[in-house]
Inverse folding.
């Protein structure tokens, strides 16, 4: 009796081994692969740095209308230009500033600012023009009671551009 049951147990165990082999293999692989799965992934290599290519910036276009001259005087000729240019005036003179421009534009604005000594504004004025070449535009200031003696300045800009200044004196 001892040989038969022992043989049966061996045979039965041998039949069960293949049934246990698959789960054991799966468990072995799972345990073996866990460190690989948990291993920190290496970061991908950084992309190569591409230097930006310089895109040329187009130059700022020159203003289409520019100031070519500012003339000061106390009288105008028939051509609306200063009859005699001067930079010293008497207190009761009307002072004219004739702005000469060149260029073409459907619309440009000439802005004139008159100041006294330390920058105190005497008068500001603007005119809109539509020149098609050389042009002149007149501005003036007057004070019937008389201008205080001292140094003055007139500042002219076209369309907010770079100012052109002209200094004068009342004595």
């Amino acid at each position: 009796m001892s040989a038969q049951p022992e043989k049966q147990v061996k045979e039965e165990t041998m039949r069960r081994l293949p049934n246990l082999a698959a789960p054991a293999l799966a468990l072995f692989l799972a345990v073996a692969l866990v460190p690989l799965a948990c291993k920190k992934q290496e970061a991908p290599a950084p992309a190569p740095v591409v230097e930006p290519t310089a895109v040329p910036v187009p130059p700022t276009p020159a203003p289409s209308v520019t100031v070519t001259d500012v003339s000061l005087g106390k009288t105008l000729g028939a051509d609306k230009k200063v009859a005699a240019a001067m930079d010293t005036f008497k207190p009761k003179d009307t002072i004219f500033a004739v702005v000469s421009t060149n260029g073409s534009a459907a619309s440009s604005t000439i802005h004139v600012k008159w100041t006294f000594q330390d920058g105190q504004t005497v008068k500001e004025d603007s005119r809109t023009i539509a020149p098609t070449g050389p042009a002149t535009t007149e501005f003036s200031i007057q004070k019937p009671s008389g201008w205080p003696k001292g140094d003055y300045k007139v500042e002219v800009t076209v369309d907010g551009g770079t100012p052109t200044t002209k200094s004068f004196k009342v004595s």
Q: What stands out?
A: The first strand starts at residue 65 and ends at 73. The chain has a mean pLDDT of 83.
